[in-house]
């Protein structure tokens, strides 16, 4: 069980590192957006379509690269009305079933099928529908695909912790399984 917990923590740390590094894309996106707004305000003749597409590419990249980590820290949408009165162990059972029956099969299938999605975009040299838009659309599609694979890693990390909670003799605080209702301070 210790080895499983170490694997889970390694996956969580990897996902956290990717999320923190990709967080800098938010700064770049803010700069691009600010430049776009200021350039429009002063009437500069620029390819605004490329700037707008670049903005949504940054949004997509930030979202995609954070999804896996967010799953490990329970920062994703969750309907807790069913589990709010359950014990932590009861929630762990629901999480186990949810991971094995719903999340893992679905995200594994979608992740696997994301690879041909990116490959076909690359092979046909897909670009924006706009004549003045961005080229190399396969890059952002690759980021989407990477985000799906990161979610798969996040699910495996949580699943490992759930297994340790349910079948190991570790105290809850040592396993650090974050499931159920979460409140954060703002």
Structure description:
It is elongated, with a radius of gyration of 20 Å. With 186 residues, the chain is an all-alpha fold. The chain has six helices and no strands.
The quaternary organization reads as: single chain
Q: Given the C-alpha coordinates, what overall shape results? A: elongated
Number of strands: 0
Radius of gyration: 20 Å
Query: What is the beta-strand fraction?
Result: under 5%
SSE sequence, one letter per element: HHHHHH
Q: List segments where confidence is low: pLDDT < 50 over at least 5 consecutive residues.
A: none
Specify the biggest β-sheet: none
The number of helical runs is 6
Portion in helices: over 70%
If you average the pLDDT, what whole number results?
A: 89
Secondary structural class: mainly alpha
| Termini Cα gap | 35 Å
């Amino acid at each position: 069980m210790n080895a499983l917990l170490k694997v889970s923590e390694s996956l969580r740390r990897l996902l956290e590192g990717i999320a923190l590094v990709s967080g800098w894309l938010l700064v770049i996106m803010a700069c691009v957006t600010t430049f776009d707004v200021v350039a429009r305000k002063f009437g500069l003749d620029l390819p605004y379509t490329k700037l707008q597409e670049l903005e949504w590419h940054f949004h997509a990249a930030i979202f995609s690269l954070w999804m896996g980590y967010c799953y490990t820290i329970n920062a994703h949408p969750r309907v807790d009305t069913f589990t709010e009165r359950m014990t932590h162990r009861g929630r762990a059972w629901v999480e186990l079933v949810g991971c094995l029956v719903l999340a893992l099969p679905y995200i594994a299938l979608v992740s696997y099928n994301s690879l041909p999605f990116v490959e076909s975009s690359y092979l046909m040299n897909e670009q924006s529908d706009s004549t003045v838009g961005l080229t190399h659309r396969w890059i952002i599609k690759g980021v989407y695909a990477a985000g799906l694979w990161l979610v798969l890693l996040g699910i495996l990390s949580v699943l490992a912790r759930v297994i340790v909670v349910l079948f190991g003799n570790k105290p809850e605080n040592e396993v650090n399984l974050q499931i159920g209702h979460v409140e954060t301070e703002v």
